[in-house]
Amino acid sequence: MRSWPxxxxxxxxxxxxxxxxxxxxxxxxxxxxxxxxxxMYVCGITPYDxxxxxxxxxxxxxxxVGRVWRDAxxxxxxVQNTTDIDDPxxxxxxxxxxxxxxxxxxxxxxxxxxxxxLRVLPPRAYVGVVESVDLIAAFVERLRERGATYDLDGDVxxxxxxxxxxxxxxxxxxxxxxPLFAERGGDxxxxxxxxxxxxxxxxxxxxxxxxxxxxxxxxxxxxxxxxSAISLHExxxxxxxxxxxxxxxxxxxxxxxxxxxCASGTGPHARAYVHVGMVGLxxxxxxxxxxxxxxxxxxxxQGVDPMAIRLAMLPHHYRTAWEWTDDALExxxxxxxxxxxxxxxxxxxDAMPVLAAVRAALADDLDAAAAxxxxxxWADAALAAAGSGAGDAGDPAAPALVRxxxxxxxxxxx
Length: 414
Prior knowledge:
The protein is of the alpha/beta class.
């Protein structure tokens, strides 16, 4: 599946420092230590509706991760999936009378357009489940060969008792896991299961549902197994960072990690797990099930500059839940105007401290608010000097460097 277009970020003077991020598995802020190529896998959307601000904030976060790594001298091998076959997609298609393939194709294209407009750097591999059915079926067969699965009415389940490291990602105990599993797509009460926490790897064909011919029989993949199979195929075991929203900690990333350990015979699946807080609207988490959504595509259709949308998200720390408001968007529009006006001046205050401050802030657990504040301070000083008639007395190279800093590190085109 094709990704979306993007230009390479400009190169900045010098080199940035190592990235420190909060690792969910250890519960600590840790320094990432990639080799020459940093490997990152981020869970993608289920394309039954357009991308909302919550999605955009997640992918903005991992875009910053990639930008900091690149600035530190690493190549970045970034992989993202899209769940282009799953129950929510089929349910939406049935409710609207649309073919599920057409629905998925349309919404994936909207997502691509949104990401390109927001200047989110694309993954090297953007991989759909439909194109990966054979890969996933072969992965399930590996788990079966290792004795970690059992059949139930034609479905294939992973037995949690075969996962000795279960809990290593989330740190949750069984009592906490069970209700979350029920809330987030699991089936703890299904009769015939050996353990309520056992999870579905392969769903045998049901009447009226799409299915594929595989050595497992006709059917389609379960949810968690798609990401473990795709990530291992594309990146190998022990890649540097596995990311997504914090609602994926359990069960999705926990169960995927168990599958990967079993299939590979080693671990961990990822060296760090990074999770993004939820975005709210009117006091509740923004979600498709609630319908309280602000869509990036609709904001763009209304003429909102995508850079203002990006700037409305940037001041929020990725680990903290926050609320989208119209006032915040207006504030971001004003900030973008100030930055562009300052960056268009013939000269300005020395910008090397801005570069240093933005680099340091982002390397410190993606403190984008501090990075934005550093550019704010420079822009205010530059505009104040220009207003006093001293605008030509500064450094003529400074505005261009600030434009490059905003471009390369913050992803904002001035």
